[in-house]
Amino acid sequence: MEKGNGCCFSIMASSATITFFLIGINLFMCRVLYAMYRSSKPLRKRAPQPVSTLIVLGSGGHTAEMLNLLSVLQKDRFSPRIYIAAATDNMSLQKARLFENSLADETGVRAVKTAQFMQIYRSREVGQSYITSVWTTLLAIAHALQLMIKIRPQVILCNGPGTCIPLCAIAFLFKVLGIRWSSIFYVESIARVKRLSLSGLLLYKLRIADELFVQWPQLQRKYPRAHYVGCL
């Protein structure tokens, strides 16, 4: 009889564990759907206060386009600015430092007070085998998580480099978990005329980006949730 009672108790405990697990999964999925829903809606207007801004830089023209975009933004609105680039991309951070120094010359405010510069491990180098890239990708994700916990930006600006994917994915996870609601703005490169880049396509299809901007009208017709803004 005692053996039967123990068996029933074990079955009930297992059933309760499965029930709690399923409830947890359902709650998590509801949060995911809510984050995707909110990210696809127009942003709420807020008081004009400075917002900490993470700016993702990349080689191959991405940095030049991003700095052109930053040149027309309200610098005091998007402050402090945290620039981040791949660990092997020193040129992009040098350009960002020159840009911030030029702003300091105009405003008289030292760049160290308004800007930070960081590097992140790259998921995959050009020509790297896919087998070895598994380990480097995991390392890049872990590093991105560490940086995002430290930075927790209110705004993320990116325009194509693959470095932005783990950062944006972690920012979206933070939304789901209620840690930080970061507004993600993705500006597709002007070089993309007929279709989105892989980074843009992932952020568009998964509804991770709050706003996705394209610079060619045919792209907006192909991806109707994108916003056509002309050549920036």
Write the topology of this structure:
Layout: H1 2-39, E1 53-56, H2 62-70, E2 81-86, H3 90-107, H4 111-114, E3 115-120, H5 130-151, E4 155-158, H6 164-177, E5 183-187, H7 198-205, E6 211-214, H8 217-222, E7 227-228
Parallel strand pairs: 1-2, 1-4, 2-3, 4-5, 5-6, 6-7
Helix pairs in contact: 1-6, 5-6
Subcellular location: Endoplasmic reticulum membrane
Transmembrane segments: 12-37, 130-149, 169-187
Family: Belongs to the ALG14 family.
Label the structural class: alpha/beta
Poorly predicted regions are none
Rg (CA only): 22 Å
> How is the main sheet built?
7 strands, parallel
How many β-strand stretches?
A: 7
The averaged pLDDT comes out at 83
Net shape: globular
Helix content: 40-55%
Order of helices and strands: HEHEHHEHEHEHEHE
Alpha carbon gap, first and last residue:
78 Å
Tally the helices. Answer: 8
